[in-house]
């Protein structure tokens, strides 16, 4: 069986000035660098209804080709903060139950790493906490 767990050694979690915690670069990271491959826990639409009533609602991903399931990512994935012009992107591998995060541009030492919760790094559609 292949091993899929991977965490780039040049990232860490720290407090942010305005969003609780976030993921940061220890050193510069080149563009297109995979910084994390994390397993996910896949759950049904019924379980999603229960999760939506908890704080975990803010940390789950819609999952599956038809988005009928949800998934809780492990590793640092739940700690990446959102930006409409993120410096990282994520890709979901439904059959392998994995999420991979990679940089889309060069990252400077100390820079916070962001993903766009809409899925595409530059998607400006308001996310649930901005649409209220």
Task: Offer a concise description of the structure.
The protein has 132 residues and is mostly beta strands. Helix content is 5%, strand content 37%.
Keywords:
6-stranded antiparallel β-sheet, 10 strands, 132 residues, Beta-clip-like, mainly beta
Please, could you describe this protein's structure?
With about 130 residues, the chain is mostly beta strands. It has a domain at about 5-40 and about 75-115: Beta Complex (Beta-clip-like). It contains 1 helix and 10 strands; from the N terminus they run ββββαββββββ. It has one helix at about 45-50, and strands spanning about 5, 10-15, 20-25, 35-45, 60-65, 70-75, 80, 90-95, 100-105, 110-115. The strands form 2 sheets. Strands 1, 4, 5, 6, 8 and 9 form a 6-stranded antiparallel sheet that branches. Strands 2-3-10-7 form a 4-stranded mixed sheet, with no helix packed on it. β5 and β6 form a beta hairpin. The longest helix has 7 residues, at about 45-50. The protein is globular and about 40 Å long. The N and C termini lie far apart (about 45 Å). The mean pLDDT is about 90.
The percent range for helix content is under 10%
Number of helices: 1
Q: What number is the mean pLDDT?
A: 89
Stretches where pLDDT falls below 50 for ≥5 residues? Answer: none
According to CATH, the fold-level topology of the domain at 6-39 and 76-115 is Beta-clip-like
What can be said about the biggest beta sheet? Answer: 6 strands, antiparallel
CATH superfamily of the domain at 6-39 and 76-115: SET domain
Tell me, what is the CATH class of the domain at 6-39 and 76-115?
A: Mainly Beta
Would you identify the CATH architecture of the domain at 6-39 and 76-115? Beta Complex
- What is the helix/strand order? EEEEHEEEEEE
Question: Nearest-angstrom radius of gyration?
Answer: 15 Å
